[in-house]
Amino acid sequence: MPTQPSKELETFVNPMPERDYTIEMRVPEFTCLCPKTGQPDFATIFIHYVPNEHCIELKSLKLYMWSYRNEGAFHEAVTNRILDDLVRACAPRYLRVRAEFYVRGGIYTTVSAEHRSPAWTPPTPVTLP
Questions:
Q1: For 7-124, where are the E strands, in sequence order?
Q2: In a domain? residue 95
Q3: Does pTM top 0.85 for this prediction?
Q4: Is 32 part of the annotated catalytic residue set?
Q5: What is each CA distance from 60 to 40, 63, 66, 103, in whole angstroms?
Q6: Is position 123 within any domain?
Q7: Number of domains in the chain
Q8: Residue 1 lies in a domain
Q9: Could you read off the pLDDT of 90-122 as tens digits, one per residue?
Q10: Could you say which of 34, 55, 85, 90 is catalytic?
Q11: Nearest-angstrom CA–CA distance, 129 and 125
Q12: Annotated catalytic residue: which of 32, 41, 55, 90?
């Protein structure tokens, strides 16, 4: 197999660090294992962030998400761990992870976690007529 799952997140230099802009990513094939039963949990992971000096490289993100496939993790724990790892990798101005887990036992679970850099002030929204 040419590639393997990896916990290493790579970054590249933000081409426009002087501007606030949003990068949105959707990972529709996230899987991990239920720590109680060992059965697979499936989710769509949404990542929204305002980069600072670095951006997340997408192939490394794919391999990172793949690395959870055989790990047991509660929904709340895995969502917060993904947030922490992404923040550690790229030190963004803002980052939110939302994990929408598919139904299990008749219950859908959505977990959201976010990070805001203390030095960042969000821009004022523009209201158009």
A1: 11-13, 23-33, 40-50, 54-56, 94-104, 107-116
A2: yes
A3: yes
A4: no
A5: 22, 5, 10, 28
A6: no
A7: 1
A8: no
A9: 999 999 999 999 998 899 999 999 999 999 999
A10: 34
A11: 13
A12: 41
